[in-house]
Amino acid sequence: MSDARLSGYPLTYLPRDLTAGLVVFLVALPLCLGIALASGAPLFSGLVSGIIGGIVVGSISGSSTSVSGPAAGLTAIVIAQIAALGSFEAFLLAVMLGGVIQIVLGIVKAGSLSAFFPSSVIKGLLAAIGVILILKQIPHVVGHDSDPEGEMSFTQPDKQNTFSEILTVFEGDIHYGAAVVGLSSIALLVLWGRIKMLKNSVIPGPLMVVLLGVSLHILFQRTGGPWAIEASHLVQIPVAETAGDLLTFLKFPDFTQWANPAIYVAAATIAIVASLETLLNLEAVDKLDPENRNSPSSRELIAQGVGNVTAGMIGGLPVTSVIVRGSVNVNAGAKTKVSCIFHGVLLLISVALIPVYMNMIPLAALAAILLVTGFKLASPALFRQMWSEGRYQFLPFMITLLSIVFTDLLIGILIGLGVSLLFILNSSLRQPIRRIVETHAGGDVLHVELANQVSFLNRAALDTVFNDAPPGTNMLIDASGTDYIDPDILSLIQEFKDKIGPARGMKVSLRGFRKKYQLNDEIQFADYSTRELKDRITPDQVLQILREGNERFYTGNRLSRDLGHQVNATAGEQNPLAVVLSCIDSRVPAELVLDLGIGDIFSVRVAGNVIGNKSLGSIEYGVAVVGVKLVLVLGHTRCGAVTSTVELMCEDDNALQVTGCSHLESIVNEIVPCVDEETCSEIPRMSQDEKERFIDETARRNVCRSVYEIKARSEVLRNLVDAGKVMVVGALYDVKSGKMEFLTDPSAEPEYEQSPQA
């Protein structure tokens, strides 16, 4: 990428932003006019909002891809409020005040509410817009323009609905000239997207579609007859003879209505609905962004508020972030908000300077662009993805989609949010907690993990968990991840801990409750190794604890430990259950891979997990003095010490010559007896996989040899093993899977050259 920049803006982005802005402009032009017409407002008000949405909102917004303008979702509200307030000028005052409310909402960070919108509703919105674009543009593509472009509701102004309008088309209400433009435009866009040379060209396909449409319009106009495309099938920007005439198109708010309570009701309605639609559309466009950028939602509310104050002052409709424009912007390859601003500049130029030429564009050509965009939004891949995520995602997704298609954008979104809320409540009622049976050093513990929000609705489910717990259970109620607990739930927990649980022989422990709840942390079970446990446990039981710990580790079900509690509990004395001799490899921390806590093991680490005088002395101390019941030699695959030893043997080198380290030779000498010399000579001809298998097998033999050497070199350990009081076993840890293979069968141990010290 070039380093050329203009005030921090990479100039390499400019071509993509300008072409995307051009495409959005072409789509926005008829939408601005159509939404104004559908809203019962002056046509020019829609264009004013489009210009403000591009230049004013685009300049303040922090989104790189969102595009604002008059919104189809507000048409019903605009119609109702203009009628209620008695004039368009009074309505403009409400728009201004609504903008002020939005600015306040942005300042108090109300945009953070967007984080609570379910992804299923957002994706349902995207798919619904795609479906609506397809269904609504079919009539326009073939010249059936009885309803304004941009009208998105199921029930239409001409008393038809989305589907009956399409049936009317098939009954023969087609304009041949417009149909040729529309169908040829679709074909051109499809080819443009599939031919690599055209797809990667600087010229955007939608621009060629518009040029094709204008050319065919001129041709049909000269031909005359039924093929000629009349004004009703073309863009219709109001044309002013002079700049002064242009200003007469502007409307201004009626400030005499400031004392009318209905103005403030209308302002609040506009602010709330426009903010909701903006936040949803912003989230939806962010999901389309290939760079996965996150738009600042509260800043967007401020930008929309400034836009609506401006719109109200000069005669525009309310503006919101608009998913249709935003999706077209993303699909056209926009990189930054420059594309949004540029589209607003183009709208201004077209209105002020070249309206006559813009009025030569057939609506069928622009409908083709929207129809193709619709197919991208409502792609089969999206439906397959939602189906694969299960019914709790798929059902809200489909209900949102169908609700929007069969009502309108705003009602459909509200239905989708309502259904998602019901699913969330249902899920919360069924499972407000997470239950895990954990095997701690002192026995099994039923870990009850409370959700982030625990309301009175969860009381029945939590009561069921308490009642289903068997008598004598150790139970841990964990509120570490909880922000709110209803007083009814706190009362239930307190009663169960103090009365019901003890009456059933249960020990109820608490963790993570905030001070204001007056439930102090109290652990009544041993989540660390105690003297009592160490004295009564057998070597086989210790081995089983280690097996289960590693299984929890590699399956991702590690215990939830209060390490601070363990630090305090073990400060006075230590009572570990085992000694673990492991390699210094950073990938094999013994406590983690065995899912153990503080004070559970003695950990001895040396490269290659080999036996030397100091490591053997540490093991003897742990077994003979402290009284642990098990010694585990823990080796691992892809061991660096084993690999180095094999390479040194094959190349007939020694560690001092190769590394300059004078003390490594003692480690290498312990591993050398485990290396098969005959196989070692074949290493230069081995594949990488074969070499890895040989090294891993050598590591396995090295573990078994260390087990043998511990018993051979230490008389005190050998006697304890022979008496059945202590067990010495090996294990090989797989660094790729995290799983251990425990080597407990003595008959499987390979033959070794005996150590001269044995």
UniProtKB/TrEMBL annotation:
<feature type="transmembrane region" description="Helical">
    <location>
        <begin position="20"/>
        <end position="37"/>
    </location>
</feature>
<comment type="similarity">
    <text>Belongs to the beta-class carbonic anhydrase family.</text>
</comment>
<dbReference type="InterPro" id="IPR001902">
    <property type="entry name" value="SLC26A/SulP_fam"/>
</dbReference>
<feature type="transmembrane region" description="Helical">
    <location>
        <begin position="395"/>
        <end position="425"/>
    </location>
</feature>
<keyword id="KW-0472">Membrane</keyword>
<feature type="transmembrane region" description="Helical">
    <location>
        <begin position="90"/>
        <end position="108"/>
    </location>
</feature>
<feature type="transmembrane region" description="Helical">
    <location>
        <begin position="43"/>
        <end position="60"/>
    </location>
</feature>
<dbReference type="InterPro" id="IPR011547">
    <property type="entry name" value="SLC26A/SulP_dom"/>
</dbReference>
<keyword id="KW-1133">Transmembrane helix</keyword>
<dbReference type="Pfam" id="PF00484">
    <property type="entry name" value="Pro_CA"/>
</dbReference>
<feature type="transmembrane region" description="Helical">
    <location>
        <begin position="363"/>
        <end position="383"/>
    </location>
</feature>
<dbReference type="Pfam" id="PF00916">
    <property type="entry name" value="Sulfate_transp"/>
</dbReference>
<keyword id="KW-0812">Transmembrane</keyword>
<keyword id="KW-0456">Lyase</keyword>
<feature type="transmembrane region" description="Helical">
    <location>
        <begin position="202"/>
        <end position="220"/>
    </location>
</feature>
<dbReference type="InterPro" id="IPR001765">
    <property type="entry name" value="Carbonic_anhydrase"/>
</dbReference>
<feature type="domain" description="SLC26A/SulP transporter">
    <location>
        <begin position="16"/>
        <end position="400"/>
    </location>
</feature>
<feature type="transmembrane region" description="Helical">
    <location>
        <begin position="115"/>
        <end position="135"/>
    </location>
</feature>
<protein>
    <submittedName>
        <fullName>Carbonic anhydrase 2</fullName>
        <ecNumber>4.2.1.1</ecNumber>
    </submittedName>
</protein>
<dbReference type="GO" id="GO:0004089">
    <property type="term" value="F:carbonate dehydratase activity"/>
</dbReference>
<feature type="transmembrane region" description="Helical">
    <location>
        <begin position="174"/>
        <end position="195"/>
    </location>
</feature>
<feature type="transmembrane region" description="Helical">
    <location>
        <begin position="336"/>
        <end position="356"/>
    </location>
</feature>
<feature type="transmembrane region" description="Helical">
    <location>
        <begin position="262"/>
        <end position="280"/>
    </location>
</feature>
<dbReference type="InterPro" id="IPR036874">
    <property type="entry name" value="Carbonic_anhydrase_sf"/>
</dbReference>
